[in-house]
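User: Sequence in, structure out. Go.
Assistant: Echoing your sequence, followed by the structure tokens.
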Amino acid sequence: MDNNNNNNSMLEQTLQDGKLVRLLNCLIVAHLRHNNLTQAATAVASATMTPLNTQAPPNKLIQLVAKGLAAENNHVLGGISSFGLDSSVAGTALYASVSDPCTTVVDFSAVHDTKGASKFFPKHETRHISEHKNVATCARFSPDGKFVATGSADMSIKLFEVAKIKQSMQPDSREGSSRPVIRTFYDHLQPINDLDFHPQNNVLISGAKDHTIRFFDFSKTVAKRAFKVIQDTHNVRSVSFHPSGDFILAGTDHPIPHLYDVNTFHCYVSANVLESNANGAINQVRYSSTGGMYVTASKDGSIKLWDGVTASCVRSIGGAHGTAEATSANFTKDQRFVLSCGKDSSVKLWEIGTGKLVKQYVGATHTQWRCQAVFNDTEEFVLCVDEQSNEPNWVAIGFRLSSGTL
């Protein structure tokens, strides 16, 4: 009887192992296909007898690996965690605390034409509530959508509560009854260029022309000054938190991004740049949703893609906007495409795997300002400011939504 039980247990374990292997093969094939590595996906599918068209949400394999590494290391974020950029642990550390990215995204694979036209966006309403004494130069929403921060040429930062903004916009709202600004920070000595929220904590960072990155704790109602300051060597044009919150990328007047360890303030600069003649200041730098990549938009007109672990430049798109500056660059949620904006009054969608231009959006004029182009939350629309009217310009993507399940 014991032998029969043992044999049954071994058979059950073998069956379970087989299911896990098949599931893993499906995830690997789907991951390679989502990242446009068709030849590799075909080879793995053929070798493992896995259907090439197997369906899985984008980044599902990365999410499971991240959770497994986090469980293995018993990694729990209780604040700003501490680890260095040691090459032996960088791969584990950078992915261990990445939260799950949204898996419902626009299917850009259906794109055939190269130009998109503007579409009427009926629910748009403009309200000027910044309360800055000079032009507002940047704005950023918190990851949970509860707050929005604005930076200004008046060297101040305003933190708004979104619910109070909505309340103040109601027709029956009395002026001053619900003041949306809940914090104002004064600490910079020159105009502020960019802002970003910590992925988990109540921390806001800012980059400015005074060559500093400053940390503000907005959980404290009386705090007006930064509790930490990173002193850079250049004008800090753009800042971006790694999804783990342990690293910050700074785009500056220097042509290569500066990577800072949040805990030690050590600065790392990549020695591997595809174009040795890169000499343009970085207008914007942004991490992908998992931190596996980051992208830069430069004053010399180039868009560059960087490996998030090795900090090496893996692809450079020179003259992305002709001879004009590239002013912004952002990843799609599935990390397959990059949306860029330039002073040639165009917004462009680039395929990461090939570096090819997939789609171009026109209709808004931006030749003087360092305008940014961003997706709305569902990635159905692209938003960019029109300089002539000083109004947002919405462009419809016009592709079907896809939500894959395994």
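User: And one key feature?
Assistant: Helices lie at 2-34, 38-48, 60-72, 90-96, 162-168.
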